[in-house]
Amino acid sequence: MSDKSLIIIGAGLAGLAAGCYAQMNGYQSHIFEHHAHPGGVAACWRRGEYLIDGGIHFVMGHKPGTGLYDLYRELGIVPRCRFVDLPSYGRFIHEASGRSVHLSDDLDQWSAALKFLSPADARIVDEIIAGGRSMQGIDMSTLGLSRPPELGGMLGQLKDLWAMRRLLKFMVGKSGKRVADYTQDVQDPVLRTCINNLFLPGVPLYFIFMIMALVADKQLGLIQDGSSDFVGAIEERYRTLGGEISYRATVEEILVEDTRATGVRLADGSEHRADAVISAADGYSTIFKMLGGRYVDAKIEKRYATWKTFDPLLMISYGVAQEFPDLPPFATIFL
In degrees rounded to 5, what are phi and psi of residue 148? Predict the structure, then answer.
């Protein structure tokens, strides 16, 4: 057994992955998870014969030749999980007007379909399509991630910037705008709504370009057996590597001695010690609850006080005893 011990808080994707890499690098790790199952926000469960899956919409890098595929292999996701290519990006239906647009995996088709929806907005459509084409052929999964920022130093940051040189122009100016702000110039309201919902209205425009490039490069896929298979593969890999997981184990406090995290105290009062602690829980719970707000500077306080929170989503799932092989996997209906 290793003489280096590590406690990880949370058995979501981040916690499980951290555990795998800890085991691979000579640590003996123990994950404490509040819930009865792993996965975190990659939630998936069954109701009778139906699989309710609202966790992972699609995955990128599911084919060999990308940095993410290598990561999937190291974490045991490949070859266990079966992936299928995303056959099209989806269909957008504006119910009030009866107008709709289907977007395939071909950017020429996107251009024609969006211009057919609103010929008057052809210039803006051309800008969006050009942005997507500009990002094709780039391995998005490795950009800026050659090493952790705290370990890379100035030289590492310069190397990352050089690797991202093709994309830097998109980070500023018009491409750096929120999609909802960019579409204010779109004349047709239905087209504006469609563009706003290609992902989320609050993301920067260049993120939409990235998604378009991944679609066109056939680098977006679906998990054939759902999020639970994806999560289960990492959990299995972690246990095979010798890691330990405790479920229904709520961490209430991170124990600190001489400014170093030395363990955790659970809700049942038990204490567990380790050489290091990683929190894969959310930032607020970690900083303000588990650490009691004792290590907060002005920057952190400003973020939690002023940054806009994510707009809430409501997921409603219906079990329908029918298959729809001819329909795209995603359909967005605007009521």
Answer: -55, 140
